[in-house]
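INTERNAL AUDIT FORM
Audit reference: QA-55
Scope: verify that the stored structure record matches its stored sequence.
Auditor: D.O.
Record contents follow.
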Amino acid sequence: MNVSLTPELERFVQSKVESGLYNNASEVIREGLRLLKEQDGIRLKWREQIERGWLQAQAGQLIEGPKTM
């Protein structure tokens, strides 16, 4: 697999390697992809909850919320 990065992203990856937190660019990219995968899972659960709530509201399955002034 070949991946092209913008110069800005290349500098960012290189700075992470130079910081000593990562041994090489591949480790930085893998960590970024792991975090993206985690975020995608969170977004999917969030969307499922919204969809479930929307369907419940359409079915009239509502609960009383706090009163605001």
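Auditor finding: record pair retrieved intact. The chain is about 65% helix and 0% strand.
Action required: none
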